Amino acid sequence: MSESSFTLLRNIGSCALENGEEVRVSIDAYRGYRYVSVRRYVLSDTFSGATRDGVTLTPEIVRILAPMVAALPEAPAAICDGQLGKFAKRPGICIVASVGTFKGRRGLDLRQWQEDCGFTKKGIWIPLEKLSEIKQLFVKAKEALDEKPVDDFL
Known about the structure:
By secondary structure, the chain is an alpha+beta fold. The protein is built from 2 helices and 8 strands; from the N terminus they run ββββαββββα. It is 18% helix and 53% strand.
């Protein structure tokens, strides 16, 4: 397998949304680097698979973001709109985590920010009604990243 190919290392879990969609969290490898992928999938009679909605997070971002998401109140009404943080992904590119309103509904938004052009199309919006499930997925992802890797050379 080529070093530049995408590889699913571990499926963390999923959170069901409306209209036959779900958010899946997984640990993937690409070009020799591990990422946590947060992506929307559609499940229907005609098509099942990943959509364009999603973002990859470095292990460092997940280690900082997971406790921040876990600290959000359980009641969506108790959560204030605004930016949770801006996290460097690589030079010139950041991930911005925020809570806000989109099409009349409040949600957690994970969006990629590029220094020269602003927000990119890469990102995902998750309704706050699913926050307790998303909290669990982030905690599981952080725990999986913190596990000692299996040594294949023993």
